[in-house]
Design brief:
The protein is α+β, with helices and mostly antiparallel strands. Helices cover 26% and strands 27% of the residues. The protein has 10 helices and 22 strands. The strands form 5 sheets. It has an 8-stranded mixed beta sheet with strand order 6-5-9-3-2-12-15-14. A 4-stranded mixed beta sheet has the order 1-4-8-7, with no helix packed on it. A 4-stranded antiparallel beta sheet has the order 10-11-16-13, with no helix packed on it. A hairpin with a 4-residue loop joins strand 10 and strand 11. Keywords: Hydrolase, Metal-binding, Metalloprotease, Protease, Signal, Zinc.
């Protein structure tokens, strides 16, 4: 994600009547269905991430999401249902999902199920028959509400106006538009079908399967076959200029909002059309692209950041010459999307790597070398600056997207490159990391262990200085810095 300095906090925009209607719907708590016997334990309301204890849920593994949403841009109202195919990983009397929209019904394998809301973020479901470990069921949740009116622990990421909507946000977005096991540890395949007025287009992750017109409305179906973390799922609806193609056998789709003024829209499209070339360059550095399709979308809205939605990053209108942002978000397809964090405190593995690949792009495209970037950044920031006070490998939930996590994370990788002092070994390390964890998750401890295994070096002091300390690393060769 770029830039991290000013994450958006859209204001709540809805009339009092809409807000009251949303509260009334939220108050329709539970279907009056009693559960049968209750062997097994209740599923926990969290997957175990210390930063966000209620993110994700215990006892379940979601295999697939089939999202069916209809969005009214005039009312800013979202109605829909999602069918989750999930497997119980333990005996469960009840299970949790993450959802902020008011719920209207729940069914498990076609049978009505009891549900309640322990808090606004959690949907607790009690099936008629408890689930046995290993059992796979289909859970259908219907919902209806105004996502733009919802704030949760300071987040209000819904981004929409009367002409366009785009669902992009990190670390939280899914719960505003579909029920989820909302943590990167639980990835699943997706089918996303969105209904809007027929004169609008819908763009989402993956491959467009169909577009079906019915009266004044149209439903567009997109499919993502590779497992994806819920926060990376997105859709955008509006009027877009769309281009398609294939580069080296890799299909791509890019789009730019027609609400962007014409000269700027043309510039934005030229930037989006650089996507296939950037992906090809990244493949040369990192290995095969991890997904079946690629692309990008520029919105006319003002999110204040770009985001690495899987297969199709979303961007604000960017200034001329902003190819570095495209490099950053596409590098995330490897670092962040294919290999995701185990816990959110490991986010430097995503952001630091994407920042490093920006520096690598510059040095291979006529700019300054990554070593010059490292040294100049190190020398340009005073040792007593707050930049050095964040613990990169554990910045805290309120500073996940602080600029030092990005820059110091990228500097750490370039310093590691200098410390290893062997180009083939350094790139072997990155490629091994990506291959070993492809489609899964990794932690800082995992990366540190792999680095020592691949290089044969004792890197404890190096990683302590760059990732765990809250002071500027000493200028030493052992820390990958010249002149030490």
């Amino acid at each position: 994600m770029l830039p991290p300095r000013s994450r958006p906090r859209p204001g709540v925009r809805a009339g009092t009547a809409l807000l009251l209607a949303g509260l009334l719907l939220a108050g329709a708590a539970a279907a009056p269905v009693a559960a049968a016997g209750t062997p097994g334990e209740p599923g926990t309301a969290g997957i175990g991430d210390p930063y966000f204890p209620q993110d994700g849920n215990g006892g379940i593994d979601v295999l697939h999401y089939a999202v069916h949403d209809a969005y009214d841009l005039d009312e800013r109202r979202l109605r829909g249902h999602t069918v989750l195919t999930l497997r119980a990983t333990e005996d469960l009397a009840s299970l949790h999902l993450d959802l902020l929209l008011p719920v209207t019904s729940v069914r498990v394998d076609g049978r009505r199920a009891a549900y309640d809301r322990p808090n606004r973020h959690e949907l607790r479901i009690t099936p008629r028959d408890p689930l046995a470990a290993g059992e796979t069921v289909r859970v259908r949740v219907a919902y209806d509400g105004w996502p733009g009116t919802i704030r949760w622990r300071g987040d209000a990421p819904w981004l929409a106006d009367d002409h366009e909507v785009v669902t992009m946000g990190e670390p939280h977005m899914a719960a505003w538009w579909f029920p989820a096991n909302d943590h990167p540890r639980d990835k699943a395949s997706f089918d996303v079908s969105v209904t809007v007025p027929r004169d609008l287009q819908v763009v989402a992750n993956g491959v467009r399967v169909s577009r079906r017109v019915h009266g004044p409305r149209a439903t567009t179906h997109w499919r993502s076959v590779e497992p994806m973390a819920p926060y990376l799922a997105f859709f955008a609806a509006g009027r877009f200029a769309v281009r398609h193609g294939s580069d080296g056998g890799l299909p791509w789709t890019v789009a730019v909002s027609k609400a962007v003024p014409s000269p700027t829209r043309q510039r934005s499209m030229r930037l989006m059309l650089r996507t296939p070339g950037v992906v090809a360059w990244l493949e040369g550095e990192l290995g095969d692209y991890p997904f079946a399709v690629t692309g990008g979308l520029t919105t006319s809205l003002a999110p204040g950041f770009a985001l690495e939605n899987q297969t199709r990053p979303t961007y604000p209108v960017l200034a001329a010459g902003s190819v570095g942002t495209v490099v950053h978000e596409l590098a995330h397809q490897w670092f962040g999307d294919s290999v995701s964090v185990r816990d959110w405190r490991d986010v430097w593995l995503n952001e630091g790597a994407a920042t490093f690949m920006e520096a690598r792009w510059d040095e291979t495209h006529g700019g300054r070398s990554a070593e010059q970037w490292l040294e100049q950044t190190y020398d340009g920031i005073d040792a007593h600056d707050d930049f050095w006070r964040i613990r990169v490998a554990d910045p805290g939930p309120g500073r996940l997207f602080a600029w030092p996590v990005y820059v110091r994370g990228g500097m750490a990788l370039e310093a590691l490159r200098r410390r290893i002092d062997d180009e083939p070994t350094f790139w072997l390390l990155l490629r091994t990391w990506l291959a070993d964890h492809r489609g899964g998750n990794g932690s800082t401890a995992d990366f540190e262990a792999l680095a020592e295994q691949v290089t044969g070096l004792d890197l404890d002091g190096f990683f302590r200085a760059w990732l765990h300390a809250t002071s500027r690393p000493a200028r030493t060769a052992a820390n990958g810095l010249s002149g030490g």
